[in-house]
TrEMBL record:
This is Guanylate kinase. NCBIfam families: guanyl_kin (TIGR03263). SUPFAM superfamilies: P-loop containing nucleoside triphosphate hydrolases. Its EC number is 2.7.4.8. InterPro entries: GK/Ca_channel_bsu, Guanylate_kin-like_dom, Guanylate_kinase, Guanylate_kinase_CS, P-loop_NTPase. Belongs to the guanylate kinase family. The keyword Cell membrane does not apply. The gene is gmk. Residues 6-184 form the Guanylate kinase-like domain.
Amino acid sequence: MIEEKGILFILSGPSGVGKGTVRKELFNRKPDLKYSISMTTRNRRTGETDGIDYFYKSKEEFEELVEQGQLLEYAKYVNNYYGTPRAYVEETLAAGHDVFLEIEVQGALQVKENFPEGVFIFLFPPSLVELKNRIVNRGTETTELVLNRLKEARKEIEMMDAYDYVVVNDQVELAVSKVQSIIQSEHLKRERIEKQYKKLLEDEME
């Protein structure tokens, strides 16, 4: 029996491209995927559960884990740390589950350094005009902030080289189908199956 390890999939792309929408629809279709639970130093809110919503740590504990290289990526927002714990990801993969991480471009590049065997998917806007419309239609940002986000998006699009796949998010259903195809094809890659077979043959020879 081949015991297949899970694969870490990283979905990333500029702000406003629709990462969250694509991820939600993907999880509706593939409930067996595991979402990567983040670690944070912010206080637990009412109704939140440790190990389900977040892993909650003190600032000292978090900084110690950073020192030990126990985070695949982390960032600080409004005096609180947020990050992706290596141990949770590795344990979930070892149990045979795929792990899905939806993250900003800077965080994805950190993951690439710390976990290069992950599969990196860049969600691309149909056009910068469309991206601008999506950010503007949120109605939460001033004109200045919208322009800053677009400048940032241009820079992030130039970082596309670091990714394995690019999916254009013009229609959510289509984008999700493409991500599903990527997941399936990664599991069928010769290198992955070869490793499993070699282990199987070694076990049988013993």
